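User: I'm putting together a teaching handout on how multi-component assemblies are represented. Below are the sequence lines for each component of a complex, exactly as they appear in our records. Could you produce the 3D structure of the whole assembly as structure tokens, so the students can see both representations side by side? Please keep the chain order the same as the input.
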Amino acid sequence: MILSILAAIPIAGALLLALLPRGRGGHLPAKAIALSVSLVTLAVSFVVLARFDVGDGGYQLTSTHEWIAAFGAHYAVGVNGIALTLVLLTTILAPIVILASFDDRLPDPRGTNAYLAWMLAVEGLAIGAFTATDAFLFYVLFEATLIPLYFLIGTFGGPTTTPGGRSYAAVKFLIYNLVGGLLMLAAIVGLYVVSSRQGDASYLLTDLTDLDMSRTTERLLFCGFMAAFAIKAPLWPLHTWLPDAAAQSTPGTSVLMVSVVDKIGTFGMITWCLNLFPEAADWASPVIMTLAVVSIVYGALLAIGQDDIRRLIAFTSVSHFGFIILGIFAFTSTSMAGSTLYMFNHGLSTAALFIVTGIMVSRRGSARISDFGGVQKIAPILSGVLLLAGLSSLSLPGLAPFVSEFLVLAGTFTVSIPAAAVATLGIVLAALYILIMYQRTMTGPLDPGSAGVTDLEPREIAALTPAIMLIIGLGFFPQPVLNAINPAIDTVVSHIGKGDPAPRTPTLITEHSKDVPTDEEGGH
Amino acid sequence: MFDLMWLLIAIPLASGALLLIWGKESDRFGHLIGTAASAASFVLGVVLFVRLMGEDAGHRSQAVSLFTWIDTGTFHVEMSFVLDQLSGLFVLLITGVGTLIHVYSIGYMGHDERRRRFFAYLNIFVAAMLTLVLAGDYLVLFLGWEGVGLASYLLIGFWQHKPSAAAAAKKAFVVNRVGDIGMALAIMLMFAQFGTSAIAAVDAAAPGAGDSVTTALGLLLLLGACGKSAQVPLQSWLLDAMEGPTPVSALIHAATMVTAGVYLVVRSNAIFDASEVARTAVIVVGLVTLLAGAWIGCAKDDIKKALAGSTMSQIGYMMLAAGLGPAGYAFAVFHLITHGFFKANMFLGAGSVMHGMDDDVEMRHYGGLRTMMPITFATFGLGYLAIIGVPPFAGFWSKDKIIEAAFGENLWVGLGALLGAGVTAFYMTRLMILTFLSQKRWRDDVHPHESPRVMTWPLIGLAALSAVGGILLLGDWITEWLEPVVGHAEHHELAVPAIVLTIIITAVVLLGVVAAVVFYRREPIAAETPADSSVSIFARAGRHELYGNEVNETLVVRPTRHLTRFLVWLDGMGIDGFVTGLADRLGDTSQLLRKPQTGYVRSYALTMFGGVAVVVLCLLAVTLA
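Assistant: Of course. Below is the structure of the complete assembly, with chains in the same order as your input.
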């Protein structure tokens, strides 16, 4: 019940905003409502967290109702540690995004109500997709997130007049994702066929995991799901919609798109692809791991070559999604836990980057890196936050993304040394794309055109502070999140019949840790 | 008591964070907080070290675990720290020299409006460096390793309004990251091989892991060490790093951080002891770098760059010693400590000179400064005597031991190290003559003057340590102290008695000194650097840092740039072009498809009829077949 409430609050808030008359006294009520709704959602998500038993790897807080009996669709929700992590990411980022977007300059200044309403709609639908435990419900919500994002990009993004403007980007975004969705729809229909042949048709995750399928069927259905997720995530070579969409979006939209909605793709790989089609996933893993490694290096190299700061961040995300997907398809509990944690950390770090660069872009009136220079001198706090967010993107130890990236690499190394070794090149390339961007925008003599870039305002600091604190805090104390993730990952790993290869030369760890209290059992 | 060792790190870390967050009102006293934090850490370090000496030899490795850093799957890392004989010495060096440099910076950075931030970065550096040496797990070590890299980045680029400083900072970080590939892969390999990256556990398991594994581990760790310690082939960042304020060059790029690679090799002695190949690689890297650095040191006219070349070269000595295995580990650490004293001393001395010379770094603009800056001259002079290895100063004892051990390993290695000693004497004498001796060459509007006391006192302290640092060797104290960590050294019989070798070394050093005196006393020194065309090919190569940057540019930077450009083009034209092209084709197809949608029912009927006919034909075909 509480999960339904959690998803319903932002949706209700969105409807309220849509119905709200455009007041004369500016948009203060709309802004206040949107922020309050997102904060209430955050509070409710903490209640969910409090009621969640961290030690249990199964689905909790479940509720199931029959929805469309004709083909076995249910309204079924529940969370395990993986889903909960992503729900929390969504509810934490929503107020940050809304607060940071208060003063966005929109093409139509009267559009603030709709702008904030669509954002809340994204939040509600994303929560729904993360909590759905019925394949049909998941599919519907997964596709439904396209609608608010389409309008957020197409209506509130950059200028339409330039070639490749916001309309182009929005349509490209929509078509790409619809094609993926269509393939997934075919697979969803296929699932019905398989399921109904074995008795009563059902789309419930619990029923689908035990489905008997021929090898070919399983592989075909897997490809249908995977195509949709790979476009969403985005995996090379299906990534080209993302840079255009990110370059034409407002910072808030970019955060919702990359930090939250794209995570449904990687979340879907773990939750749906691995649980439903374990053998097909195993069959496809060499290809997917290769594509993931290509994504890591390719995304990083492309990021180095960008002059548009928003496209740069989009390409860094292509690289980071490569790490996430690599970890998932390495099938070790270490790498998969790393991938799940990576989803959370990447959400935070990318949010901070998009927001802070968005502020730079709006004050400079240009997104071109070459139009900046020496901004550090006049905006020290801004440049400090940019550097910190950038360092988290390059996975500096001590900041959250390092832990997840290292877990992915260490886990992958145990099953494929070449994949891990090539992926490790990413740490040099990441240093290049971040530090070159920082050097060109922030250091050197002040560029005359950048003289109008003022430092962060209190509202912007307030929006960024929670993200920054989490990035630092989780760098040293990732364990609370990992404790929630671990049991769920163990369940998935044992379901697909995989595990971590044993160390080749095991040591007597007890010898070292005799004065180190380790509680393998009680720690969870 | 040893449970408190985390405070060593926490105090400067908290101070650094405080100074960054606290607003402008702390500008007046921020530097005092920073210095006090470093001093507090030093006092605690001394107390802990004394306690450590009071323990039995068998109980001098004290471990604490603060909390579980990462625990998932089979991956388990404790935030653990170990204070033992090795890390204890480093704690004293880092916090001791660090505190002196904090004090010095109060004066040196006195006129900088961002002084508070400078002290915050220094504090963060001290905390990270202590994390590095105290770490009980390679991943925790990596945390400190990258932390010092960050501090180095921030401090090299401290004057980031200068494009050269910003570029140097970025270069340092990126080159170090290349080394980090080695570190990261080494830790992954440990995890895959041993199931842990705890240093003690890896130590225990390494001998049984097989030659290929220990060789791989050793070479990967060496790659990391090359980056951090500016060893060939990852040396190119160190000379550029001299863009940072001079106290930074003294603390980070001479006394402590750049020696972390040596620490890493010594700390991983179990791995290197088990791999002959890896040790040989360490020796080769050390030998090549010690000669390359000395060569560069001979050719540079920029006082800081000459000293930086010298730092490379001296770290080469330490690497070389560490590559010798148990025979050399203790001497590597010994030289590391004495070098920390005399090189920090000389860098701060150089800073004192620059302070009096309006920040000019060109030695050709100096000359005859001994009378203008007597304290700086005297303290620098002690550092000079120490580095070239004049008995009884600190460097004599440590370098002598390394050269002796090198001869014990291999004649050619020994000869290389001996040659390095002669060249060191040459370039340091050259530096002394150009700066303090010879005639005045500065312009009349420059008024050299001695630095304030807050700067000269640290110089005096470090000069004293440079003079007497050799006492660590008294009664073989340092080798016996470190033996439980690095193992027992087999004694090599040399072809000649050790005392004869010492005399030979001293003679070579004297030769270097005389050569420099003859060379630079012969004629008046030009106040401007002679053009490249008028100097020998050796000097030209040295000035260009043996073309290391050109090699990197040709082999790495330019190909990467071209690849990036090509991929950007490909992404727009190729991949996106293919997909959007596909979309366009789809668009064309739909145009075609639209034509039959005429709105005439009769044409629809015809189409339906055609469709039905096709279906029927298909069914027939299938049934008949």
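A couple of points students might notice: Confidence is low (pLDDT under 50) at residues 509-524 of chain A. The first strand of chain A starts at residue 60 and ends at 68.
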